[in-house]
Amino acid sequence: MPTITINNLSKSFQEHHVIQNLNLTIESGDCIYIHGMNGCGKSTLFKIIAGILKPDCGTIEESDDVEIGALIENPGFIETESLSYNLLFLANLKHHYDQNKISHLCNLYHLDYNDKTDIKKYSLGMRQKAGIIQAIMENQNIILLDEPTRGLDKESIQIFIHHINNLILENKAVIIASHDYHEDMHFTKIYKMENGHLI
């Protein structure tokens, strides 16, 4: 069962203490909602969990079966290539490319997998959908989503909520950092991030 245990995590940038002695346990079936003011450290926490940043101190213990998928801040892509090219490129980094699954996810979010349009021409909402897809397309079991509904229309938000609830039923763990709280999402834990702590 995939589990992440965070113990006494701290991170500062110059004199600014963004995360201070933070503790959190993430287990299969968790749907965790984290909210807080801009700059409170939500994205920094996600980057540390994903291995993009190193903490100043503290530990992150992962079970051997953890596979992390993440959408953090603005999704980055190869701008002069198509959606399918980008998703193929990302999936092949770990040799987890499943075209049928990826095509199904694109259809779910009303993106055309076969469209050859450069991704630089995508709207904010379309880019956000592509970012969500890449975070879950390789059967990741710990999924970090930073402001995932930014730029999405109402129909797409409902598709996203239904999809996340299904992932929880599949025993995935999903952690969402967002200003937007969605009542229909089956959150198991809710935290406010303030002064470097989860409350």
What this model shows, in words?
InterPro entries: AAA+_ATPase, ABC_transporter-like_ATP-bd, ABC_transporter-like_CS, ABC_Transporter_VariousFunc, P-loop_NTPase. Residues 4-199 form the ABC transporter domain. Keywords: ATP-binding, Nucleotide-binding, Transport. This protein has 199 residues and is α/β, with parallel strands linked by helices. The chain has a single domain, classed as P-loop containing nucleotide triphosphate hydrolases (Rossmann fold). It has 5 helices and 9 strands. It has helices spanning 42-49, 83-92, 99-108, 124-136, 154-169; strands at 3-13, 16-27, 31-35, 57-62, 68-71, 142-146, 173-177, 189-194, 197-198. The strands form 2 sheets. The chain has a 6-stranded mixed sheet with strand order 5-6-7-3-8-9, sandwiched between helices. A 3-stranded antiparallel sheet has the order 2-1-4, with helices on one face. The longest helix is centred in the last third of the chain and has 16 residues, at 154-169. The radius of gyration is 17 Å and the shape is globular.
Tell me briefly what this model is.
The chain has a single domain (3-198), classed as P-loop containing nucleotide triphosphate hydrolases (Rossmann fold). It contains 5 helices and 9 strands, in the order βββαββαααβαβββ. It has helices at residues 42-49, 83-92, 99-108, 124-136, 154-169, and strands at 3-13, 16-27, 31-35, 57-62, 68-71, 142-146, 173-177, 189-194, 197-198.
